[in-house]
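JOB MANIFEST
job_type = single_chain_structure
chain_count = 1
residues = 113
[input]
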Amino acid sequence: MLALAAQLGLDFDVKRAASHGVDGATILPADRPAALFQVFEGPEGARRLLETAETFLEATDFVFDQVLRSRQVDELQIVRVDAGRSEVVWEHRPDQQTPTPNATTCRRSSATP
């Protein structure tokens, strides 16, 4: 379930909930901005924004359908931006044979409901 929530951009931050003494998930304020997923091309320091999506699934669809299918690319990253924090959740480098999710995403996706 946590993997699906992460793909849809939902925030089930169990660690944050546990630190506040809440079992399970935490209820977030309604006025909190939604997380966004940004697709960047290029190496660190020379990155350019290609797309901003509301969900991880929309961001990966853009990467595979609009970018990787049509041309050779430098480094690609999908970055989740949430409440002022950002984390790379997926990346591709030309020296990799296949694009791979970030280790954090791998741990999330291996969770079972």
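[summary]
Residues 2-109 form one domain.
Helices lie at 2-7, 14-19, 56-68, 103-109.
exit_status = 0
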